[in-house]
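If your schedule permits, I should be very grateful for your opinion on a structural question. I have a record of one protein: its chain in single-letter code and its fold written as discrete structure tokens. Kindly check, if you would, that the fold set down in the tokens agrees with what the sequence suggests. I remain grateful for any guidance, and I place the record below:

***
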Amino acid sequence: MSTTKLAAEAWGSVLRAHAVLVPEMDRRLHEDGGLPLRWYDVLLELASADDQRLTMGQLAERVVLSRTRVSRVVDELQAADLVRRDVNEADRRSSFAVLLPQGRRAFEAAAPVYRRLIRELFGHHLDRAEMVVVRDALGRVAADQGSVGT
């Protein structure tokens, strides 16, 4: 098999896995953890940030699932009283998304469910060595995208 064909098949596997796993993860996280996956994605990034706040631009760069919809997701989270928006005094054209205490609690309640679902839906199908290969290989692919075209 040619390298090009193998690469195309590997790419197809990544797309199929994503297409199957993300909706199932979303459904089960919402049912068992009380949050849709897009909310969890944003809350995870805010919980991990210094001062538990990020500008909308920073948040858009960090989230995995809803980059193009970050502002809408933050609006949903704000309506649910899980985050608030603060004006960025250094650049009044932008704002911060700030994790509220109840947002932190919602994130912490959903985190064990999220980790369990990763094990059940993804990790269960791979042994430890395969997980390392997938992590490292896809990590290299993602890291290299910053240098494409430069």
User: Anything to note?
Assistant: DSSP finds six helices and three strands in the chain. Residues 3-33 form the longest helix (31 residues). Residues 38 and 65 are 6 Å apart (CA to CA).
